[in-house]
Amino acid sequence: MRALAKTERASGLSLVEVPKPTPGPGEVLVRVEAASICGTDLHIYKWDAWAQGRIRPPLITGHEFSGVVEAVGPGVRRPQVGDHVSLESHVVCHTCPACRVGNAHVCLNTEILGVDRDGGFAEYVVVPAENAWVNPKELPFEVGAILEPFGNAVHTVFAGSGVSGRSVLITGAGPIGLMATLVARASGAGPILVTDVNPYRLDFARRLGADRVINPLEEDPVAVAREMTGGGVEVLLEFSGNERAIHQGLSALLPGGEARILGIPSDPIRFDLAGELVMRGVTLFGIAGRRLWRTWIEGTALVYSGRVDLTPLITHRLPMSRYQEAFELLASGRAVKVILDPKA
Ligand code: NAD
Ligand code: ZN
Ligand code: ZN
């Protein structure tokens, strides 16, 4: 089978021919129908400091994908052959103390598909049966492929006290920030303010239902947020990983508000703990992955019912053989979700 792999400790990826894997006990073989590129894949492609510390080649990349169950290993009852599935990318142990208290999304032994073990930029992939989430057959594969990052957005928006009836500031209108805009809108948040430094993405946020978009290079998001809400937003949803945006987001919060942070800064950042958090009574949530499996239940309820339509976020579709073009497109910032067809 064909796969897109990191074969050496260097930048770039290679299209390789490798044997089709066989599912062992408790595993399933998935024929991949659509895969999507994530910012993490770009880090692996560029071979930055994070990738150098984490990735052990040879590795088949890709953790956002969907497909059809082609075979099941011994002992697997669900899913069944022929089921259409999306994949949860975190493989968890179910036995560590975090798993045992119901926090498997922060399992101490987490392995991520396409990062720590072979992923879905391939014609076929073997995964633990429980990682395959069964979708209705009418759901387009390309939408199925982006349910994993969508789950990041759902987890962030629904954490803490949610967003219903609350003013919200979304920092960073990348794919996940844009998905959060859709979820916030569908969940009765208002007003919804969105910041980004990229005009192409701000335009997307406006079309997807943001009440106000702000380019921090042109105006002050804190002043706009305070003016629109009479004091500050109740909820900050952080998806930029940008230090400046994080400080601006915290300043734009109404005292007593909630900051939910999913964005990952490339370097450690400094906080004025007392001034930004303690004395303003802010509750801060670190948001990792998706809650297993509550986030999948909540997210798919929004998508299957049509309350959230993810199709406008899919801006490009390319055969996997044109992966270099696809990665460059995403890196340019003039794309949201780029879908690869592993068969082409
Ligand atoms: P992305 O890089 O495409 O989006 C980030 C956006 O932030 C970009 O559109 C960028 O223009 C914008 N931005 C940069 N500087 C800004 C500023 N000063 N103010 C406002 N916006 C600014 O990433 P994504 O795929 O949407 O993911 C969002 C973030 O979440 C990334 O940091 C990613 O690493 C992180 N992430 C975390 C988890 C987790 O489990 N915690 C999972 C997936 C992704
Ligand atoms: Zn990802
Ligand atoms: Zn565990």
Automatic annotation (TrEMBL):
<feature type="domain" description="Enoyl reductase (ER)">
    <location>
        <begin position="9"/>
        <end position="340"/>
    </location>
</feature>
<dbReference type="InterPro" id="IPR013154">
    <property type="entry name" value="ADH-like_N"/>
</dbReference>
<keyword id="KW-0560">Oxidoreductase</keyword>
<keyword id="KW-0479">Metal-binding</keyword>
<dbReference type="Pfam" id="PF08240">
    <property type="entry name" value="ADH_N"/>
</dbReference>
<dbReference type="InterPro" id="IPR020843">
    <property type="entry name" value="ER"/>
</dbReference>
<keyword id="KW-0862">Zinc</keyword>
<dbReference type="GO" id="GO:0008270">
    <property type="term" value="F:zinc ion binding"/>
</dbReference>
<dbReference type="InterPro" id="IPR036291">
    <property type="entry name" value="NAD(P)-bd_dom_sf"/>
</dbReference>
<dbReference type="InterPro" id="IPR002328">
    <property type="entry name" value="ADH_Zn_CS"/>
</dbReference>
<comment type="similarity">
    <text>Belongs to the zinc-containing alcohol dehydrogenase family.</text>
</comment>
<dbReference type="InterPro" id="IPR011032">
    <property type="entry name" value="GroES-like_sf"/>
</dbReference>
<dbReference type="InterPro" id="IPR050129">
    <property type="entry name" value="Zn_alcohol_dh"/>
</dbReference>
<dbReference type="Pfam" id="PF00107">
    <property type="entry name" value="ADH_zinc_N"/>
</dbReference>
<protein>
    <submittedName>
        <fullName>L-threonine 3-dehydrogenase</fullName>
        <ecNumber>1.1.1.103</ecNumber>
    </submittedName>
</protein>
<dbReference type="InterPro" id="IPR013149">
    <property type="entry name" value="ADH-like_C"/>
</dbReference>
<dbReference type="GO" id="GO:0008743">
    <property type="term" value="F:L-threonine 3-dehydrogenase activity"/>
</dbReference>
